[in-house]
């Protein structure tokens, strides 16, 4: 079975923090997740590659041996070049670490097809633009520590998805619940 995986990340250079989001679809279900980037991510490219790793990890953990190949789609050209199994290992130690983790996950048993998609397009244009915009929005929310617009979810009729986030990412998704503010009504004076 082949899986289509959209990934995106949001990086704040001033705060040096990031968030990732993934959307994966196969013939047996769908995965939509987001979370904070690992603490070792130091740039937007690191965050994008962490999103790719998280997506591949979640796909393989959820659907396992059923997966023959994953078409990874991202708007970051450097991450798409780095994720290819035949791509040379990066000189950047963080990017190299993430490349090695991806290669360790797939171990020659899963084909990876990286596909660059143009980012920041009108989401009304087509499905690709909508999915990229969705991942972009959810990654931004994860970076800010907000909960997803809809709950992070996995839809699959055949098997139950793991409840734990990818432990290999070194940082669990951090979602905070928003508290509703109560407005005080002015008390009538007599």
Walk me through the structure.
- This protein has 190 residues and is of the alpha/beta class.
- It has one domain (2-157): Nucleotidyltransferase, domain 5 (2-Layer Sandwich).
- The protein has helices at residues 44-63, 77-83, 93-106, 127-143, and strands spanning 2-12, 17-26, 29-36, 69-74, 111-116, 153-155.
- Strands 5-4-1-2-3-6 form a six-stranded mixed β-sheet.
- Helix 1 (44-63) runs parallel beside helix 3.
- The termini are far apart.
Total number of distinct structural domains: 1
Radius of gyration from CA coordinates: 18 Å
Query: What is the global morphology?
Result: globular
Number of strands: 6
Mean pLDDT: 78
Helix content: 25-40%
The class by helix and strand makeup works out as alpha/beta
Instruction: Write the CATH homologous superfamily.
Output: Ribonuclease H-like superfamily/Ribonuclease H
Element order: H for helix, E for strand: EEEHEHHEHE
Distance between the termini: 73 Å
Strand order, biggest sheet? 5-4-1-2-3-6
Number of helices: 4
CATH class: Alpha Beta
Note the main sheet.
6 strands, mixed
> What is the fold named in CATH at topology level?
Nucleotidyltransferase, domain 5
Task: Specify the CATH architecture.
Answer: 2-Layer Sandwich
Estimate the strand proportion.
15-25%
Question: Regions with pLDDT < 50 over 5+ consecutive residues?
Answer: 155-181
């Amino acid at each position: 079975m082949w899986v289509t995986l959209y990934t995106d990340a949001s990086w704040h250079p001033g705060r040096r923090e990031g968030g990732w989001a993934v959307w994966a679809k196969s013939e047996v279900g769908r995965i939509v997740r987001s979370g904070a980037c690992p603490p070792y991510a130091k740039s937007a490219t690191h965050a994008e590659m962490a999103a790719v790793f998280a997506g591949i990890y979640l796909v393989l953990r959820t659907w396992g041996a059923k997966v023959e190949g994953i078409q990874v789609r991202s708007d970051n050209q450097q991450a798409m070049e780095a994720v290819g199994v035949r791509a040379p290992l990066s000189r950047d130690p963080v990017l190299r670490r993430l490349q090695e983790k991806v290669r360790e996950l797939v171990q020659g048993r899963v084909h990876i097809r990286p596909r660059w998609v143009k980012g920041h397009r009108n989401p009304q244009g087509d499905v690709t633009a909508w999915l990229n915009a969705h991942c972009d929005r959810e990654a931004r929310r994860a970076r800010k520590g907000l909960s997803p617009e809809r709950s992070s979810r996995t839809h699959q009729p055949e098997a139950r998805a793991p409840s734990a986030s990818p432990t290999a990412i070194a940082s669990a998704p951090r979602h905070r619940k928003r508290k509703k503010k109560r407005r005080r009504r002015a008390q009538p004076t007599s």
